[in-house]
Write a structure and sequence with these properties.
mainly alpha; 82% helix
């Protein structure tokens, strides 16, 4: 690898790590450490064990779902190979954010059962459906009247906005909506010319990937099983969130709908391009809990820390075991080939 590229990668990794530490600083700034340690000691770690078990089950389900998508490429791809690819992907994200998806493609392509490019296409399909699922759940959270977040949006955002609207404002909103629709139509009509520009080319590529992924998911054999796996996957994520609430006395007043909201917010923390969501997860989750639920910062940070570290520990352990399994399998294959 050229020296310039190596320096660029080192700088990127350093900047992402620095961002993680900055976010950790803002998340923990003002935390009362005596209260923090007392909160950790008061945690019921039996519920955290339930959360970690649900996390492992989510890895298994994601592996099964991914294998279902890859079967048209090669029916001999095993459940274990798909599972190992998923867990190694999570482990890789702790070293280099967003590289996990490439790592799991490499795990499958290394078996010689499918090309890297074809496996990457299945990842795009999977992530397309994850994005749609996320948006649907976000919509459910907004409508969930039982959640504090749903009430907050309804009472503090939606109703005041509707009550304050005049006919002039409604006209402005209508005109803005019409302009957006017109712009979308024009972009679609002139997409070939616009694709010469880099920013539009990236937008079109992303949109095309999402649409192709969704279409392929609807055409695949066993699509109902795919949808069932997707539902079970998000159910596991919800169990992880709710069981963590039950484990921590300081936030025990929150209910199942609030757990759904915290699951949605926590997902954003893992998306931020820092190593394993470190800092970003703590900052976003504690900020949301303080803003929406008026939960003290220390209590919010306790919840975010225990939630993140239990998930991180599960990812690291499962990923390390999968790497060890892959290594032993490779050694065994090499030994047999020498005989």
């Amino acid at each position: 690898m050229p020296v310039r590229k190596q320096i660029k990668k080192i700088l990127q990794w350093t900047l992402m790590l620095l961002l993680a530490f900055v976010l950790l600083y803002f998340a923990f700034r003002g935390v009362k450490w005596a209260d923090f340690m007392e909160g950790v000691r008061s945690c019921d770690f039996r519920w955290i064990a339930v959360s970690m078990a649900a996390s492992i089950l989510a890895f298994v389900i994601r592996g099964l779902r991914w294998r279902l998508v890859m079967l048209p490429l090669n029916p001999s791809i095993t459940r274990r190979e798909a599972y190992d690819g998923v867990t190694v992907a999570y482990l890789t994200n702790f070293a280099l954010p967003r590289a996990g998806e490439l790592a799991r493609c490499g795990i499958i392509s290394a078996t010689g059962k499918a090309t890297f490019e074809s496996v990457l296409g299945t990842v795009v399909l999977e992530r397309s459906w994850d994005m749609v699922s996320y948006l649907i759940i976000l919509f459910i959270v907004l409508l969930a009247g039982e959640s504090s977040f749903g009430q907050f949006v309804s009472n503090e955002v939606w109703r005041p906005a509707v009550d304050s609207m005049s006919y002039d404002l409604l006209w402005i909103i209508g005109i803005a909506a019409a302009l957006c629709v017109t712009a979308c139509i024009l972009i679609f009509v002139y997409r070939r010319k616009l694709s010469r520009y880099r920013i539009f080319a990236k937008i079109f590529s992303l949109a095309k990937g999402l649409l192709n992924g969704l279409a392929a998911g609807l055409r695949m054999k066993g699509k109902w099983r795919f949808l069932l796996y997707t539902l079970l996957l998000w159910l596991c994520y919800w169990i992880m969130s709710y069981s963590t609430i039950l484990a921590i006395p300081q936030v025990a007043g929150l209910n199942w709908a609030d757990a759904l909201f915290l699951m949605v917010v926590g997902s954003l923390g893992w998306i931020v391009p820092v190593q394993g969501g470190i800092g970003a997860y703590h900052f976003i989750l504690s900020l949301a809990m303080a803003s929406i639920y008026s939960i003290p910062q220390t209590s919010g940070v306790i919840f975010a820390t225990i939630s993140h570290e239990s998930q991180a520990l599960t990812m690291l352990l499962c990923g390390a075991l999968s790497l060890g399994s892959i290594y032993l399998k490779k050694r065994k294959t090499e030994k047999q080939s020498r005989l």
